[in-house]
Design goal:
This protein has 3 domains: 59 residues, no CATH class; 87 residues; 109 residues, no CATH class. 55% of the residues lie in helices and 15% in strands. The radius of gyration is 69 Å and the shape is rod-shaped. The strands form 4 sheets. A 4-stranded mixed β-sheet has the order 7-8-9-10. Strands 1-2 form a two-stranded antiparallel sheet. It has a two-stranded antiparallel sheet with strand order 3-6. It is α/β, with parallel strands linked by helices.
Amino acid sequence: MVDDGLAGFVYRSGRWKFQEEPLERFVRWALEEQLVSAEVLPRYRRVYLVVDGEQRRFRRDRWWTSQKSIADQGRHEVMRQRQDAARVEREARQKEQEEAAERRRREVEEQERARKAEEAERRRLEREEEARLRLEEARRRWAEEAERRERERAEREARLAREQAKREEQERQDLETARAWWGRLSPQQQTELFTAVAEYAWRESSVRVGVPEKPMMWPQYARGVPVHVADKRRTLYGIVRPSPDLVAACPTLAEELVLARNAHEARELAAVLPQGRIVHLYLPEHEQLTVC
């Protein structure tokens, strides 16, 4: 029995298969050239056989076989080569398609990146332009505000200067008026006046008032001279000879005791201070008029 070296090619499975034949038949087929020694192509050199219930693998590179099996192996090899070529072509085509798809994907990604970069740049430029416009607007407002403040400062300074000049002029005029008013009295008459004020305060109010050595004309009392009680608090007692022409600028004078030299001065003061407490000290008028 020949159980190795003889095989037939099964086209459907694409494999060689062991064949067992009696030795006499094998020899007859060989002599009749129905069997020839054939080379096994590399793809088909593995062959399987069940031995003792276990499938085992063998490797053979030559068989005794028929011309038909050799032809079937050749046809199968051609078919496999066509399949391999088709597979290679299919894989190449698939690879090319995948590469093309990858290129398209990258192109789309690149276009998207470019679009996003362009959009980001556009937004950045817009933000810069908006910031520039805001800064220009802020600078314009700052300049306008600075100009307004400078204008207001100049106007305020001009107004203050005018007011100061007006006050100084008024002060000068008031001082001239007061000097003219007090200039009616000689130094002796002024001394006589303040002595009479002290006597009046003691006689009428039982208080002693301080007689100023150098009488000071106070603007808030219409350039009259204030006299104070000779106590610790120096309470204001009255105002001596406020100028009638300056009384209108001193409304609080109506609340104070006003002391005039004589009836003539009292009438002058009463004309501009109708609600005031005015008393005169009965000093002679002719001496005063003579001095004037």
